[in-house]
Write a structure and sequence with these properties.
The chain is mainly alpha-helical. The chain contains 6 helices and no strands. The chain is 68% helix and 0% strand. The longest helix has 34 residues. It starts with a helix and ends in a 9-residue tail after the last helix.
């Protein structure tokens, strides 16, 4: 067969493009919601952070998760909590923001190593092919990563600086005085808008789109 594999590759590319578009649209919509409900978003994110910390402590006490990794996870979420000081504003050069970005990768690496080592040790202890390995399932591991490692950083990424039309509330600071022309924009919306701008410029250079057309 020659044509069917090509159809499979084409379908995979088209599906990946649609999936990327769907994720970008969802993030853009979430960013819009945060702009309209900043106070509620801040309250919800704060409660989520404390909930994840409590979940990690329970997993350490009940299921015997490693104390050192649990302590690192709790400390990381306390640092994430520090980004809520000026919510929804964020300064990219803020040490807390930089530390948060680094800790996301560090947590992912060490927890991935933990589950990988646990799997290898469990298989090495098997004395027969009929033995069942005592390891978490893929669903359990993926759920842990989604809730305890990536949920809060992802929510902060969608929420921080998402405030073009939101007035500052008590406890928030605005580093510059806007004159009504320069408005703050969320990181997600800024990335999506820049990508659309680049696509528009490339399309105009290639002659696919007229200058007056817009996405």
């Amino acid at each position: 067969m020659w044509i069917l594999p090509l159809v499979g590759y084409l379908g995979s590319i088209v599906g990946f493009c649609f999936l990327t578009l769907a994720i970008a649209s969802g993030l853009y919509y979430l960013s819009e919601l945060v702009e309209e409900h900043t106070v509620i978003a801040k309250r919800l994110l704060t409660k989520l952070i404390y909930s994840v910390i409590a979940l990690q402590v329970v997993l350490c006490v009940v299921d015997g998760f490693p104390f050192s990794l649990t302590l690192m996870g709790v400390a990381s979420h306390l640092i994430y909590l520090g980004n809520m000081r000026r919510f929804p504003f964020v300064k990219l050069s803020d040490p807390l923001f930089i530390a948060s970005c680094v800790l996301v990768l560090v947590n992912h690496y060490f927890w991935f190593q933990h589950f990988s080592d646990a799997q290898h040790k469990s298989y090495s202890r098997m004395s027969s092919v009929y033995d069942q390995p005592d390891i978490p399932s893929f669903t359990e591991i993926a759920s842990y990563f989604g809730l305890c490692v990536w949920l809060i950083p992802f929510a902060l990424f969608v929420s921080l600086s998402a405030s073009d039309n939101v007035l500052p509330t008590i406890g928030t600071e605005q580093s510059s005085h806007d004159d009504g022309k320069n408005k703050r924009q969320g990181m997600v919306k800024l990335i999506v808008d820049n990508i659309l701008t680049v696509i528009g410029e490339v399309s105009r250079m290639a002659g696919w789109k007229r200058p007056e057309d817009r996405f």
